[in-house]
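All the exercises in this workshop are built on plain-text protein records. A record pairs a protein's sequence with a compact description of its fold. Backbone structure tokens are a discrete shorthand for how the chain folds in space. Once this layout is familiar, the rest of the handout is easier to follow. As an example, a complete record with its sequence and its structure tokens follows.
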Amino acid sequence: MRSFRGNYADFPKGKLTKSESPDFVLKINTDKSIGIEVSRLYKNHVLGNNESEMRSVIHRAQELYFDHFKFPVFAWVYFNDQFNSPINQELYATKIAIAVIDAISDQKNKSSMKMHIEADLLPTGINRITINTHPSITESFWDCRTEITISDLFEPTIIKQVGQKDEKLSLYRKQICDFYWLILYADYIQKPASCNFEKVIERIRLKTAFHKVFLFNLFEEKYFNLSGK
């Protein structure tokens, strides 16, 4: 939410507080408020169906990394739909840990760094690992991410997930607000060079009771207004 708020120039000024159903309430003044629901956009539910297995593997990989290397890093592991819960999670986690150690072993003296480990150095089911280091990072943090690709499923996926959130609007309206926004976020949107992404977005037609619907690309920190309002 912090990243979206910082990049959306028209985000209203006011007091933003965490809530539940919807996730945030923005108090603009004593008379006006906005309820904001935030939801990850899943590709074929890759992360949704396997999230516990992915997080288990990453947690173990981070432990193995720390056993051999104390240099703190942020690591984002981007899974794809070829990931299946590995029979040998220990071996799978070890391959991830070794890839990260090898990548930064020659770079650890740099004050800050951002780099990518590509798929050919990683086990099946992972597209890339993004690594960040900075003097302010004192503890390692690893997490899983999923990529959204531009395909025939992209538009139906958005329409389906917006529809699912529309079904919950009666619940959100118990938090009495003047407006309701939905922010769908993707960790990374993979776009072919030939793809005119703005045109893809323009083709999306939503029937929704949300006053505004946004798609936010976390990796690029770029938003798209899907509601046309």
